[in-house]
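Take a specimen:
=====
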Amino acid sequence: MFERFTNGARAVVTGAVDQAGKTGSDSVTEEHMLLALLDQQGNRAAFAVAALGLTDRRASVEAALAEARRRGGLTKADTDALADIGIDVTEIVTRIEDAHGEGALAADRKGRRGRSGRPAFARSAKNILEKSLRVAVGRGDRFIGEEHILLAFTVTPGVVADVLAEHGATHEAVTRALYGEGAGGAEGQAKAG
């Protein structure tokens, strides 16, 4: 699949490995991929990210991702569902951190390193790459670009999609930023895929 990636998409993948290395993580997560994508310049996804104001709010995006890590990776939907049955996630996190130290739930889940000694890709990151292929195919594109990775983030339920949505980067907003007003059709099929 990597041979179908554009230079921009490859830069996101290698940038994610670098992000994981900088943090000492044993695995490359979708969070690392998002941060690598936010580092991109001069391509379609970088334009969309800037148009949506994410470039100027990178610190806010990073803080929201850190808060989700602190909650053990629970999404907003997860915490809302638990609240509906009377479970206060904030209270639980506080108790765990009181007993085990700040960030106890955010500890890096030790993954396996690849043969090269570099961090291996976590299942969530692999899912994003697979979804980016589906998005590209759904749009009728022959290659997988960084814009397909960005769209894959918005259609894959999880913390990254939540954080992007909180910052105004929903699937619809990203699609408009990438392809203009009235962009319809194939990406709706990719979203369902």
